[in-house]
Amino acid sequence: MFDLELNIRSWSDHLRARGNFKETDILELESHLHDEIEDLVKAGLAVDEAFLISVKRLGSSQLISSEYSKVNSENLWKHLLVEPVDKVEKVQNRKNIILVIIFALLAGTLAKIPGIFGMQISDPAYSLFYFKNLSLFVLPFIAAFFIIKHKLSWKMAAAIMGVFCFTAIAINMYPSFEPKDTELLTGIHVPIFLWLITGVAYIGSKWKDSRRRMDFIRFTGESFIYGVLIFCGIMVLAMFIMMIFSAIQIDLSWFIADYFFIYGGCAAAMVTVYLVEVKKSIVENFAPILAKIFSPLFLIAMIAFLAVMAASGKSPFVEREFLIGFDLMLVLVLGLVLYVISSRGMHDKAGLFDYMNLALILAAVVIDGVALSAIIFRLSAYGITPNKLAALGENLILLVNLGGLAWMYIRYFARKIDFYVLEKWQTSYLSVYVIWMAVVAFLFPVIFGFL
Amino acid sequence: MNVSKDLIAASATPIVLAILKENDSYGYSIIKMVKELSDNELVWTEGMLYPVLHRLEEQELIESYWNSSETGRKRKYYRIKEAGLKELEMQKKQWEMVNSALSKTWKNKNQE
């Protein structure tokens, strides 16, 4: 069956990729195409024939694009906050913005509540409390935003919010004894766990679908980049406020610390999520561009490291700090690989960056393998602590992930599998992260007696 | 007959303005109308028409609005503005002048 809408969309995506078009231009051309097709169908053509002829009549995308570029040249800088063109969308957009404002205020207020009970955020005694609860102040609202925006069913909404409630209760009811290692571990792992749960709200009812999961991975990368930028803006604004008010001898540091950063931080998170969600079709994703810039550089650095290590005969000295360093290396490599994959068309032929991905993965796996063989020996010699076990677990999970990717890549290059198998494998593996994060956050304290 | 590119480009503005003076319209319909008006001699491409429309909009000779078609799809309509009507009058005079000048020279040639 010929899917007209799908074909028209892929045609307009083609135009979009050429640049030179404003979004309204594309809509106008799409509508034109529809008109032409309707007329041809009325004249007795089949829909697919009508589509082919209409596209042909509209001329090659290059021709159209160069004509448009003459008019639009100053408009090539796309505007993120464009007013949607039709009324329904306008109303929807307003609703979303209002929702963002309300949720940002609620999140900030929620973060202020413990302060009312004497748990001041500036008090070092409560820093761990705030650290582990930080994600709980913001992420439930982001999840709620998506639940409302994507109109999720009551059942799913309840399940997602249930997880948030359970997390809030569990991490705050758990006792904690010196040296509070497991509490810190919980604090580190809960945000990642909850972010992935927020991902379920983002993806919606098709949360098992690998393409939608890939969308969530893209969303995560863009959110991170935009979040950092917006937060930098907030820092600048804070410093600016402090500076001008101190010029007239008014000290506003209490306001900045107690209100501005709390509400500002929550607002930054909400605005980031909103912007990334709105802009996804307007501006090219930035994370893949970063990944493509840095993956060759990382590859060179890692190969150089391997070569020097082999030549000098030094084996990596592995303490826990170094193990975390190697974990970070794996995370970085995984990120680079993922975002290069994310920008790649499903049916593209294997290209330079695919081979570079494989090389990057293999280098990382070899380096990490050397490091691991050293640490397992030390672990068995000095006994197990929660920190070491968590770092080791992460390392193994990342290693399996990268190893799996490498294996899939090799099979893909050998034309044994299609690329979507690789993508599917990667997105399915996200579940492993959810489980491991939950294990460290909720089970580790129990296993290690809340030490 | 193949009308030269320059002539098509030069005549585009008055034709579009004249069509819009009659009725608000949208790109696809404008192209069809031009074809009919010229007995299939003037065939405009979309790649040419839309940039012209957008330029006229930028010059504030016409304005656009989104409306739904009979089938409920979104469609961008164009409407002529006051300045557009004035421009049309001016263009009309210019074309008439060119036209009469040309006719005279051709007449002279025929008499020789």
Can you tell me about this structure?
The complex is a heterodimer of chains A (about 450) and B (about 110). Chain A is mostly helical and about 450 residues long. Chain A contains 15 helices and no strands. The model of chain A has no long low-confidence stretch (mean pLDDT about 85). Chain B has about 110 residues and is α+β, with helices and mostly antiparallel strands. Chain B has helices at about 5-20, 25-35, 45-60, 80-110, and strands spanning about 25, 60-70, 75-80. Chain B has a 3-stranded antiparallel sheet with strand order 1-3-2. In chain B, helix 1 (about 5-20) packs across helix 3 (about 45-60) and helix 1 packs across helix 4 (about 80-110). The longest helix of chain B has 30 residues, at about 80-110. Chains A and B meet through helix 2 and helix 4 of A and helix 2, helix 3 and strand 3 of B.
